[in-house]
Specification:
Keywords: ANK repeat, Repeat, Signal. By secondary structure, the protein is mostly helical. It contains twelve helices and no strands. The chain has a single domain, classed as Serine Threonine Protein Phosphatase 5, Tetratricopeptide repeat (Alpha Horseshoe), CATH 1.25.40.20. Helix 1 crosses helix 3, helix 4 packs parallel to helix 7 and helix 10 runs parallel beside helix 11. The longest helix is centred in the last third of the chain and has 16 residues. The protein starts with a helix and ends in a 26-residue tail after the last helix.
Length: 236
């Protein structure tokens, strides 16, 4: 293994363990070509670990905030995420999201839009931040022939979020456009509007499988610890 590859892997480990001082030493001598060959950028690790201080250092050193995960790494995630911004949004890490967007991170690069994740979380500040930086308000996931914007499913009971979407050009006309017209709709095996809904159901089922209700005995003020499936881990 070449020295540049060893350096690249060492940087990833430093970020994951939050060795900020070591990171400051290694970054200047890092081979960007080795980072590219690895298929994952230290920026992803900093965003995934919610380490805005490390993230800021990497951005200042010239690391690409729009570096996308290689397919061989992306396949380990159910949502096939690609961008560092997606990791930060998924964590609800507002500081890292601000850093990435200010550095030019693009909000519409992932199969499941970053805005969709923020809407699912109901995080007004994240939603507003993404919309101001060009997140596609009319994004939709296709699991049936309908094409109305998927964001609607998260705003039906939240007037504030709905108003935010409308203010940024939400296409309400699509909600009334059906490709079948008055004809009978064919049967589809998937119920729901988007793949996000399907993923929500899968996550709920997996949690119930690993944490049966009858086995959970908590103090009234204690919150259960939810451990995600191994496929969500950044490094296997």
């Amino acid at each position: 293994m070449g020295t540049s590859c060893i350096l690249a892997k060492t940087i990833l480990k430093c970020i994951l363990k939050l060795f900020f001082r070591a990171l400051k030493i290694l970054v200047p001598v890092t081979d960007f070509a080795a980072i590219k060959r690895s298929g994952i950028s230290p920026v992803h690790c900093a965003a995934a670990g919610a380490h805005p201080k490390c993230l800021e250092l990497l951005i200042q050193a010239g690391f690409d905030v729009n570096f996308m995960l290689d397919q061989r790494i992306r396949k380990h995630y159910d949502d096939h995420r690609k961008s560092a911004l997606y990791f930060a949004v998924s964590n609800g890490d507002l500081s890292s999201v601000k850093l990435l967007l200010s550095a030019g991170a693009l909000p519409n690069q992932d199969p499941v839009n970053c805005l969709q994740i923020a809407l699912r979380m109901g995080n007004y500040e994240l939603i507003s931040l993404l919309l101001r930086h060009g997140a596609n308000v009319n994004y939709f996931c296709r699991v049936n022939p309908l094409h109305f914007p998927s964001a609607l499913q998260y705003t039906l009971k939240d007037e504030v979020m709905l108003r935010m979407l409308l203010n940024y050009g939400y296409d309400t006309e699509r909600c009334f456009d059906c490709p079948h017209g008055d004809k009978v709709h064919p049967f589809y095996s998937f119920e729901g509007w988007t793949s996000t809904v399907i993923k929500d159901t899968m996550v709920s089922a997996q949690y119930q499988l690993y944490h049966p209700v009858q086995q959970i005995k908590l103090h009234p003020l204690q919150k259960p610890e939810i451990k995600p499936p191994s496929s969500w881990m950044l490094v296997r």
